Amino acid sequence: MLEIKELKSPPSLELFSELVELLQDVVGGGASVGWTQVPNTKDARNYWTEVLEAVGRGQRLLFVATDNHVCAGAIQVAFAPRQNARHRGEVQKLMVHSQYRRRGTGRALLGAVEKAALARGLTLLVLDVRSGDDVERLLKRCGYTCAGSIPGFVQSASGAFDPTSIYYRRLGAAATG
Ligand SMILES: CC(C)(COP(=O)(O)OP(=O)(O)OC[C@H]1O[C@@H](n2cnc3c(N)ncnc32)[C@H](O)[C@@H]1OP(=O)(O)O)[C@@H](O)C(=O)NCCC(=O)NCCS
Question: Are the C-beta atoms of 113 and 61 separated by less than 8 Å?
Answer without folding.
Answer: yes
